[in-house]
Request: fold
Amino acid sequence: MTNKCSQCGLTTHTVDATKCLLCGTPFSSADRGPQIGQSAALAMRPTPRKCAKCGMTTHSEDATNCLLCGESFPDPLVASNPIGGEPQANQGARQAGHSTLYVSRREGLKPRRLIAVFTALHGIVGLLGGAGLVAMILLKIIPTVSVLMVTLAIVTFTARGVCGAVGAILLWQGTKRGYQFSLVCWGYVVVVGLIAVVQIPLLDLPDAILAKHIGSTLGKLMFGIPFVYLLASDLLRLNSTAIRSS
Reply:
């Protein structure tokens, strides 16, 4: 309820005010503005929004993200669900379960699940190949061990095996680390494939083994080069967006 002084014109918004705070003139019934009931006043207040991830309540009407963790608030029309569908509590639980999706959206990256599947396969092969080569070196199955062979075993186990396995899991979720690890894995595959192509004229192998080697090398390059391009272009686009926004 508002009270406007008839002498000085000061408007007082205090409900129980009986006189003007400036000049002290008592308020009359004509000075009192329209009364707003308590229920109507509460209805005019903005509806608080509670974050489904951290539980923080935000009273700002224009807030679209949680001020504490940055979680996106759902659309109020969808969250209220007046027509039908899942309840609001179930919707909040579903949003909490898909927090990784919101993380990837904030980063500007999307899950590359097809690439993640092929990355996981190459990662498993790299782990097995690197571990087998290390085991043969430790068991002295290979008579002469050189620094180049030890380096090859470590690089294969790390760049292709570890980066491929870890990168596939993170790339499935669409995180930046997943893109980076997967790019290392496929970069290694492409480099090894290009070296193998250069060495093909120098190989003296039976036709069946040589054909199998050429087919395997071309297959790796056929998948590796497009995957490297897609992963690298997404990372470059993300970095350029971050630089422009800063």
In short: The CA atoms of residues 222 and 243 lie 33 Å apart. Confidence is low (pLDDT under 50) at residues 77-87, 96-106. Residues 48-97 form one domain. The chain has three domains: 1-36, 48-97, 110-245.
